[in-house]
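Many introductory courses stop at the sequence. We go one step further.
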Amino acid sequence: MATPKKMKFKIEPFKHKVEMDPKYAEKTWSLLQKAIEEIHDHNASGLSFEELYRNAYNMVLHKFGDRLYNGLQSVLGEHLAKVESAVQGAQREQFLTELNQRWHEHTKSTQMIRDILMYMDRTYVQ
């Protein structure tokens, strides 16, 4: 009985370059920005966190991590400015109550946003 020949496999890269839609980063960031704003507005029940995570993952994977990171900084800065003015506008007796409520809302929304942007946090930010 003859022994079978060993077959050698060679894995080659794709012959054609995959081209991204030039507006991919802006379209995806716009979607993520709206979702982050919905989270801040306590309206996250209709969001698909799996889809949002996948969009953020793809942005980082396709080298748009800087757009995602800078956009997040901008959105969070705007949101925190609104929160700051609301807390400062609270009456003396209500200041600590307002501050405590806003802090709990902030930590809850930040946890949800962190879940969406986990891949960026692990790879791009480092």
